Amino acid sequence: MGARTDECIRQLNRFLRGEISAAETYRMAIDKVADSDKASQSANLNILREIQEEHGRAAQALRDRIRELGGEPSDSSGAWGAWAKTVQGTANLFGDSSSLKALKEGEEHGLKDYRDGLEDIDTASADLVQNQLIPAQQRHINLLDQLINTVGKA
């Protein structure tokens, strides 16, 4: 494994920690909404679950790619996970839109990370990021915008 491959694996592991963190954060958000027992939240809950599942699939795709390159995938979200838990823990989900805005900020941060890290990865990994992961982040941001607008009008 060359230095280039090592750098690629390091960057892919950064992406992976972000995806693990996102999935954990959505799980906490989903638990809070589910605990609130508001029937009106079921559509929102489904959207959050869909986004959480997509982050889980993205994490798995990154794990697979890291292994293909001969690397060892991260198994935790690291510092990002701790930060995400703090942010999500302080946001009162669906009481207002602050929690949704926190989730959106996380998605925007992930999108920026993907764009900034593209030059540090190999072509096949860049294809995965550009064709699957970046479009997913953009879709999540749009879905959260819709939820924020809906909650704002409620």
Question: Any descriptors?
Answer:
154 residues; mainly alpha; 5 helices; 81% helix
Shape: elongated
Number of strands: 0
Structural class: mainly alpha
* Helix proportion range: over 70%
* Biggest beta-sheet profile: none
SSE arrangement, N to C: HHHHH
Helical element count?
A: 5
Rounded to the nearest angstrom, the distance between the terminal CA atoms is 55 Å
Low-confidence stretches: none
Beta-strand residue fraction: under 5%
The overall average pLDDT, rounded, is 85
Q: Taking Cα atoms only, what radius of gyration do you get, to the nearest Å?
A: 16 Å
Summarize the structure.
This protein is mainly alpha-helical. It has helices at residues 3-36, 42-68, 78-90, 98-117, 123-153.
Protein described:
This protein is mostly helical and 154 residues long. Helices cover 81% and strands 0% of the residues. The chain contains five helices and no strands.
